[in-house]
Amino acid sequence: MKVVLLENIKTLGNKFDIKDVKDGYANNYLFKKKLAKKLTKDILHEIESKKRSADFKKEKENREYKLICEKIDGKDIIIYAKSGIEGKLFGAITQKEIAKKILDDFNLDIDKKKVILEESIKTLGKRQIDIKFSNDIIARIYVLIKEKS
Question: Which one is the CATH code of 2-62: 3.40.5.10, 3.40.630.30, 3.40.50.300, 3.40.980.10?
Fold first, then answer.
């Protein structure tokens, strides 16, 4: 049976993909959980329209991300924090604090989930941090953690 996916399904495909699946899987799982619809001409036209709209929205988003990336790529931000012996911080600098500092310094509201940190920053010093807007749009900034006096 041919179906159109209404959501991304890890093992099957992405939203708006047309897939050929077994009838039982479609009826007992995909349709019951509203993850897919049976492919008809009307559904096909509706999905094509939604796909065009989603592509247009994604292109617009990517243009905005590129503009933001140009504004912050290679820039430095300074965050002041209290530290103890050997530069260890009392607490840690997180994605949320970096996103807030970008908002304060550049007036750009960036989702904290786009700030890529392997782990929270716990010492003074300078680090390169990636801001990942999409797979091919990444800005690199430098975060300098200084002693708060």
Answer: 3.40.5.10
Cα 120 to Cα 140: distance, rounded to the nearest angstrom: 17
What three-state secondary structure class fits 145?
Answer: strand
**88: nearest Cα among 120, 128, 129:** 120
Average pLDDT over residues 31-41: 92
CB of 89 closer than 8 Å to CB of 145: yes
Q: What is the mean pLDDT of residues 121-139?
A: 92
Cβ pair 139, 68 in contact under 8 A: yes
What is the rounded average pLDDT for all residues in the chain?
92
Q: pTM here? A: 0.70
Residue 33's nearest CA partner among 12, 49, 54, 47 is: 12
